[in-house]
């Protein structure tokens, strides 16, 4: 049997981490089994579906280098692969169920259904939902409804007795009493639009899907879908319900934890290889130890039985670490190309970059590479180099447990050391050693002498190492900035 899986999102919002993990698990499972990965767009919710969300789906998979074997754009033998283009198929199969006695026409108005729900709530009935009012209408009653011009919906006849069981690769057998399954849900609406349940089951069968890997939140729909398969006389696929993606606080991952859309991660400067690698490890493990995998390796070693049953935790700091490791693996040339759009957007460089700035950029990339977590970090690290920042506010020069006067004294003595050492041809590493000794002589912590220097050169408290900062600015510009800072501080302390 050839393995066929599908990723079937609704284009109602941007692709998020949970959805992308589902796509990756499906894709890697298919590739590891020599099977096929199908992309299907479930856009039956026409009011909420959007072209922006659909394009984001394509862009996200393309950015992650996930190629589908069948689906929109590429086509395939079971198309179309967009549900809004398959409505006639759903009508055909809904009517087939009516003809076989497994479904029926329902003529209840929304007002009547509201009354039923209100009454059930008041009576605290254990059976919530549709009361199966039209389930046993006679042919005469049905014809009379038709004469009144009422457009019926088609509902599934869910058995009221017995149980339904389906097997889940991770969870084992899952059984529900039929009386607890959603009572006779709508399959086809009055306007001819299918509901999720009908379209999903029909498409999975016609597209030859062998394994359904989807989020655990769909477990309650499992028995209903199996009942539908049985009504059609079809064999259900194998199910594998994936554990949820949680934040570190144990709650379902959401915007309160940080960015969740892949577009946000991309814009911030995460690399597709890093995001793919890390997300694949959220709820899956190869051997409990190995963490780094290329896409080609995951396509070979992914094992569906090694998916964890418990929820996967998405750790933003761990992703930052992963991304930093992947940045370090880039060549300086490739990294520079990836950083240029962020520097252009910040207004630091133009597309027609001058030779002087190009030289600065080349040196900056080498210096910044070990400190980047995401590509956008380069903007904060480069401000001091490509702009002429104003002298920072006096309080920024003051390290913890220091005062302004002592900070001024530290910067003044640091400058004297720099002039003497550099004029003697010493390296900046030697200069740093002498500045460290100055801290000991002054009886202050090392940060007490380096913070004023850092702020004088960059106007920030976070920057590249001092040796890199000095190298990038050069002696003339560095001394000029220190002198401006000393001038300002002198006025403050006098």
Q: How would you characterize this protein structure?
A:
Helices cover 48% and strands 9% of the residues. The N and C termini lie far apart (85 Å). The chain is elongated, with a radius of gyration of 32 Å. The protein has 4 domains: 4-71 and 246-313, Rossmann fold (3-Layer(aba) Sandwich); 86-242, 3-Layer(aba) Sandwich (Rossmann fold); 331-383, Helicase, Ruva Protein, domain 3, CATH 1.10.8; 394-493, Arc Repressor Mutant, subunit A. Helix 15 packs antiparallel against helix 16 (428-442) and helix 17 packs across helix 18 (466-493). The mean pLDDT is 95. The protein has a 3-stranded antiparallel beta sheet with strand order 3-4-7. The chain has 494 residues and is mainly α. Strand 5 (163-168) and strand 6 (172-177) form a beta hairpin.
Taking the alpha carbons of the first and last residues, their distance comes to: 85 Å
- Element-level helix/strand string: EHEHHEHHEEEEHEHEEHHHEHHHHHHHH
The overall average pLDDT, rounded, is 95
Helix segment count? 18
Give me the count of strands: 11
Q: What shape does the CA trace take?
A: elongated
Summarize the biggest pleated sheet.
3 strands, antiparallel
How would you classify the helix and strand content by structural class?
A: mainly alpha
User: What is the CATH architecture assignment of the largest domain?
Assistant: 3-Layer(aba) Sandwich
In the CATH scheme, what's the topology name of the largest domain?
A: Rossmann fold
